[in-house]
């Protein structure tokens, strides 16, 4: 297999960093990785984790998905502008009642998570079409399939990504290009920490008491437990992503977390759409204790599955 060039966005931490390190460290040297980040001052962790691959199979470059000039500059510095595999990973989260969020904060989520992908593809897609080869891999989320309480705008941004990609995939097929949406559930990264801290600091004065209580005493109270129970690591997601990249016929959608699959399945089980909404409602508002117990049960199942695998 000839060496493939891979451009990954958002490599200063989390999934992007884990994926860049894994691909650049490939024993068969199948990939040349352009690991990009918006702020090069944050490159130290990646440099340390990447070790001797830097300058060999990895190059670190500046790229801000919210800035067209930065995207153009980065891609024009890649030999022949050739990107065989584009991994759109950069993303930001936002939680809380919408009445306590500003439109600017919401627009930043859409601008990064959705328009960031659009900007990148406007630059990369024409070259891929000309060559009639390329794989576009998008780190989406299970929240691109199903909304979750107090994640309204974040879920909307990932739904936008999924709708955009579903439309584009049909055209891509005509040009023999592959498109794959990677859909993780909770992943323990900086993202989880930043989102939780922002939630804890949020000014809730614009919300009524019932909504503010719901956010603090139900959502934030269970947040850590959900990540502890269902959370995967950035390395887990990197491993899944590499498998999809190496697949002969990469799937359009790939969920990384089997513990989460029963939850997303509800969506497809009822065309009216009521089943997942009612199930979440009951779990959150009527069965707070059962919710915690269910999480423990799910965790136990996951541990048993791991024991069997090992
Ligand atoms: N963690 C989860 O629970 C989870 C679950 C499902 C899906 N995801 C998705 O996974 C992806 C990666 O998230 P993560 O969990 O690895 O979080 P992370 O550690 O916070 O990484 C996010 C990366 O995106 C970068 N970024 C943000 N805005 C950017 C911009 N305008 N231009 C370029 N880079 C930008 C960040 O850079 P800075 O360091 O400069 O901020 C950081 O490198 C995101 O798309 C996220 O939505 C995460």
Automatic annotation (TrEMBL):
Entry binding sites for substrate: 141
Domain of life: Eukaryota
One GO biological process term: estrogen biosynthetic process
Gene Ontology cellular component terms for the protein in this record: cytoplasm; membrane
GO molecular function terms attached to this record: all-trans-retinol dehydrogenase (NADP+) activity; estradiol 17-beta-dehydrogenase [NAD(P)+] activity
Residues bound to NADP(+): 10-38, 64, 158
Keywords recorded for this protein, A-Z: Lipid metabolism, Membrane, NADP, Oxidoreductase, Sensory transduction
Record carries keyword Zinc-finger: no
Protein family membership: Belongs to the short-chain dehydrogenases/reductases (SDR) family.
Protein's name according to its UniProt entry: Retinol dehydrogenase
Gene source species: Anolis carolinensis
